[in-house]
Please model this.
Amino acid sequence: MKTSSLLVAITLVLVACNKPDAPAPIASAETAATETGAPAAVPPPTGPVTPSFECSKAESEAEKLVCSDYSLAAHDNRLAELYAAALANPEASDDLAATQRGWVKGRDDCWKADDKKTCIAEAYMTRIAELQINSPGAVAATPVEFTCNDDSKPLAMAYYNAYDNTPAVITLGSDQTIIFPQNAASGARYGRTGISFWEHQGKVSVDFFGIKLECTALPPSTNF
Model:
């Protein structure tokens, strides 16, 4: 699952932003994990599964799975809330509705995935992160740059710890995607299907869609 051109364009704009209230550089993923703790958990089930749409009208396999799963329904409600707020914002992008329709199509394509629930959950979490990161007035993250055993493509991470699920944007060369904290016995681990980023005792192991790297974070003074 490669990164969409929209995400690349969006994230590049955000990384380039230079706002006076941007957070100080994060020295490492382990520091980020220590400061923020575990990612925000989906609220436990307290009643019927009630996503933002009528389950009696659910057509796609993805929608039917959302209607049968509390955690996916919670993601759906959160996304609906953020999307409605984005639509109401006078500074909203002109192609916001088209982008959302494209996202729905991508979510529904999860019927092809081996693990459909994980695919759908990642789709929701990614779209939620996109809407938050790219909302008008959002604070730009300061990326952390790494030096790797193969430096033919620069590697960087930008951490958005204030947002739902504490996402990070990983950049390898011209490719970018959003990844999320994952359970780790030690160190700090981020990832999603096809990508893993694990930092432990100052060393970083990366698997970016089959490109495997061993890296270390550059000092903050050298980060772009």
